[in-house]
């Protein structure tokens, strides 16, 4: 038998040990390589999104400080904002977060980025109308109109819809303004009514000596030197998602605020019938509903607004719109906006405004508006209609018809609305065609 040197045995043991561990080492090395490769494949970097800053607001009368709770949901890309309402703190005091110009569109289990610029541009063009007016047209026309008309009061309406959508109901709303305010001036901001067809529609009012004009909106001029200016520029540049709610509706919400801030006066929705003079009212907004337990208002509405020029509450409304705009939540930029702002600022010195009860402009909630279109069904119902009509005639300056709920409802003989039409119409020979 051949005897090997002890050193040879040591080398032999090392070689066999290495060969035994080799598969395990290669397996570990493979896992390490796969992990590195996977990290490089599934890691995605969005340059500048979190660090990007929005276009700065030009007007900063107060120091902006956030008071919203931001909850991180997924990595550092998506955030949820929870609104809180601490006493004495303005929710408008928060910084803007610039949204990326794309949306997440699920495809199976994956997601891709879909640009929104084309869709946004189409919406804006459709809302603003295809016609254009020369620079300064709006300001010159409105200024000349007010100077030459010697208005006792100023009223504003907006109509950002096709002229074909204008019905007898909207025309009756115009009639009601002049029935109660024959020496008033009415400016209808509308691209469709500022046309040859629009002139024909409004001619009967001019023929009777009433002072009104329809003028194509110049958003750049109307929004100038307010928070609305920066918001609108970002919208035009595709840096704001217009959302699923009608962009025209949201522009109307902002337009009414900016018009009153620039000129002062009364804003009315086109489904509001004026019942009596409101010339003695100043700087008022009305509750839509009240809390039955506390008797305090629970929600305000922006269908009727009466404010002086440059009123600070209007400034805060505009600021809130620009800083908290959400195009996917109905009412967020309208009734809910004025409600949350007034709730925060009530009691603060220097604002000088009054919240009227629902009976002033909203004597019937939208859930019950159809009852005002019904004629008497029996003696009990007839008595109720008489009592309700008397109450409206005594307490209400106007009545909001809530078009969304009542547009298709017919006016029945002897109904409250039938009596209201008789009281506020001018061209009463066509009473039966109203609505």
Defining traits:
single chain, 435 residues, alpha/beta, Spore Coat Polysaccharide Biosynthesis Protein SpsA, Chain A, seven-stranded mixed β-sheet, two-stranded antiparallel ribbon, 13 helices, Nucleotide-diphossugar_trans
Our measurement of the CA-to-CA distance between the termini, rounded to an integer number of angstroms, reads 121 Å
Say what the CATH topology of the domain at 137-362 and 417-430 is: Spore Coat Polysaccharide Biosynthesis Protein SpsA, Chain A
In the CATH hierarchy, what is the architecture of the domain at 137-362 and 417-430 at level 2? Alpha-Beta Complex
Characterize the overall form: globular
Our estimate of the beta-strand percent is 15-25%
Helix and strand composition category? alpha/beta
Mean pLDDT figure = 78
Counting H and I runs of at least 4 residues, what is the number of helices?
13
As residue ranges, the low-confidence spans are 7-12, 18-22, 36-114
The CATH class of the domain at 137-362 and 417-430 is Alpha Beta
The largest sheet, given as strand count, sense and whether it forms a barrel, is: 7 strands, mixed
User: How are the strands ordered across the major sheet?
Assistant: 7-6-5-8-11-10-12
What Rg is obtained from the alpha carbons, in whole angstroms? Answer: 32 Å
> What is the chain-wise order of helices and strands?
HEEEEHHEHEHEHHHEEEEHHEHEHH
Please give the share of residues in helix.
25-40%
Number of strands: 13
